[in-house]
């Protein structure tokens, strides 16, 4: 069936998405419900058999616990038949819900958590402060608390100056979203960070602040989180710490200040400049060493000079390009007019010797 909705003075028609279970789910339901004699409902015994044979629940205790969770989910959403048993709609909704997650919370943490942090998938939030859409909704600390309780480990905050440029607000910049106070967000992170998991929380700060406000935020973060804040002992680590090493810690992730990057870049360029130049151009060649004739550029420049002027030019060229350059020089004599000795000089494109192998 088609349905409609109004946009200004127009009516738009569309076909709603179907909530019907797929054919594969229907076949599985019929196989277990039919074997139990119900046909239209999945009884408790058939549900236990499904959990054991299909879902892989091993022990009897695990099967019973899983069956109780399924029936509780169905009862909460009114998906049980009057005579008992799970309807096909309830079976479908339970299979596709968070209650049937592949990594069920009941199992707990069962992986090795001693590897570097970069070896793990991390449950990440985006614009964690928004209560609705990214254009016109409000900003609040409530979505942050909910995300942390649901197990999210990365919270993102967009930091912008307020209208007076003397304080910091959290909002989706250049939109109509209403701001929320940064301190409220930080206190919410501290309160709910480790409710659902003891492993680290990464607080990503998208920084649009002036240096003065950056310093203010740094002070707020230190005072709010205190010992919970993870402080690295060095600027560059060979590997990240493990989640086990970072239990109960909050990590701040943001770009370094622009001034820091510029200072660091200029220092590195000063240190590496001379070494890079030597590696490209090679050692200086003494005057008595003959040049290699290897690279000939077909697009040559021809210049007409007198005999004496030609040798002066070659001498200047040799002094100027005496640092590991390779080129070819071809000299041929022609007489332009009686009594005048002239020479045509072809100088190829010069390239670093090491680039030629």
Automatic annotation (TrEMBL):
It is an enzyme of class 3 (hydrolase). One of its GO terms (molecular function) is phosphatidylinositol-4,5-bisphosphate phospholipase C activity. It is found in: Cell membrane. Residues 111-255 form the Phosphatidylinositol-specific phospholipase C X domain. Residues 261-270 have a biased composition (Basic and acidic residues). It catalyses: a 1,2-diacyl-sn-glycero-3-phospho-(1D-myo-inositol-4,5-bisphosphate) + H2O = 1D-myo-inositol 1,4,5-trisphosphate + a 1,2-diacyl-sn-glycerol + H(+). It is a peripheral membrane protein. This is Phosphoinositide phospholipase C. It comes from Aegilops tauschii subsp. strangulata (Goatgrass).
